[in-house]
Amino acid sequence: MIPETEHIIVNIKENSSIPKFIQVANSIAADIESGIIKTGQRLPSINELSDKNSMSRDTAEKAYKVLRDRYLVISVKGVGNFVRDINSDIKTDVFFLINKPSSYKMEVYNAFVDTIGLKGRVNMYIYYCDEQLFINSLKKNINNYNYFIIMPHFIGKGKSHVNYTPKVIKAIEAIPKEKLVILDNSYSEISGTFTAIYQDYKKDIAQALEEGVEKVKKYKKFILVYPSKSLFPYPKAVLQGFVQFCKKHQMDFEVLDEIYPDQEFDSSEAYITLEDSDLVNLIQQIRAKNLTMGVNVGVISYNETPLKALLGITVISTDFQAMGEQAAKLLLSGKKEFIKNPFQYIERNSL
Predict the structure, then answer these.
(1) Cβ density class 158-188: b for 16+ within 10 Å, e for less
(2) Does the pLDDT value for residue 156 go beyond 60?
(3) How far is CA 117 from the centre of its chain?
(4) How far lies 266's CA from each of 104, 124, 263, 297, in Å?
(5) CA–CA gap between residue 262 and residue 19 (Å, rounded)
């Protein structure tokens, strides 16, 4: 007979800002992880959980969904919800190597970890776009992991961006292809059949700007703020795609290294900023000069964040969450595919 947990006492703080269903899920999860609720036990039904703890049925239902999403509980149709054997589900060790500790890279990583759940242990390493740190990390861990997820971005001569170096390619080629996943950048430099979810920087920015071309063309000049000697350099293809778009539409354009103090706004101009520091500087100066975004000055930012959405900033951005989720799904399925990640133009009031 399947053992059943007769009663679960959940801890709910009425004045907490944490939603009740999250509190319920956290309380049950704590009991599972501490061993109070055992592996294989059947949990109370949604009605039983709600009745005995004076909560709504909707709260109980949402709590069980959270637990299923966390891979702590499995639902058997017509039978009930059961506690999973979390140790038996851990089969895959993942080496996750990112080039810089930005919010965008962390969004990819977090989406990957959330999607793979308890089916894998994921360890993140950062190599700061440095060739030797990258190679050393791979050599040290080459025999320790089932999969190697890599974001290739490196500093080349003159502090410019390069996708790969000859030494990096040699190091990657040493990884068995069935264990290799490349994210975020070009994959064609590597031989064999493996998994890649990539951005096409030149094509992406050009196509995204096409969606907003009518708004952009109301300005007399289009300016890309492209930091050519950034600590973490940006792909040259972003610059190339911008220039291609401007030439196609015969637009007057300029490329700046940064937003300078006391930036001159001599005419109706639109800007694309890559770094958040330049975006902040630009907005501050627009406000100081009593100008209006979307009227006197157009503003587009590269890479979406919740804060940009809140401020009403138009963005062009890859879907970082989709990249992480897709990587985890392909890894779990064992499929080897080359997939271009979705890239979006999100129009808001700043343009």
Answers:
(1) eeebbbbbeebeebbeebeeebbbbbbbbbe
(2) yes
(3) 16
(4) 33, 46, 9, 10
(5) 46
Q: Report the amino acid identity of residue 302.
A: Y
| Residue 217 and residue 301 in one domain | yes
**Rounded Cα gap, residues 14 and 19, in angstroms:** 9
pLDDT at 5: 60
Query: 161 with 232, same domain?
Result: no
pLDDT in tens, 293-349: 999 999 999 999 999 999 999 999 999 999 999 999 999 999 999 999 999 999 999
Q: Are 97 and 185 in contact (CB under 8 A)?
A: no
Final residue of a domain: which of 86, 109, 144? 86
Q: Do the beta carbons of residue 133 and residue 96 sit within 8 Å? A: no
Is 8 inside any structural domain? no
Q: In terms of domains, do 82 and 92 share one?
A: no
Phi and psi at residue 122, in whole multiples of 5°? -115, 125
Residue 117 contacts residue 70 (beta carbons within 8 Å): yes
Phi, psi (deg, nearest 5) at residue 296: -85, -35
Task: Find out whether 159 and 229 touch, Cβ atoms under 8 Å.
Answer: yes
Helix boundaries (H) for the chain? 20-34, 46-52, 57-69, 86-89, 103-116, 131-141, 166-173, 201-211, 213-216, 236-248, 276-288, 306-311, 320-333
- For the beta sheet containing 343-346, the strands, ordered from the edge strand earlier in sequence to the opposite edge, are 253-256, 221-225, 269-273, 297-302, 314-318, 343-346
Instruction: Check residue 80 and give its pLDDT.
Output: 85
Q: Three-state DSSP class for 327?
A: helix
Phi, psi values for residue 233, rounded to 5°: -65, 155
How crowded is the C-beta side of 351, counted as CA atoms within 13 Å?
A: 25
Residue 209 pLDDT > 80: yes
- In eight-state DSSP terms, residue 293 is B
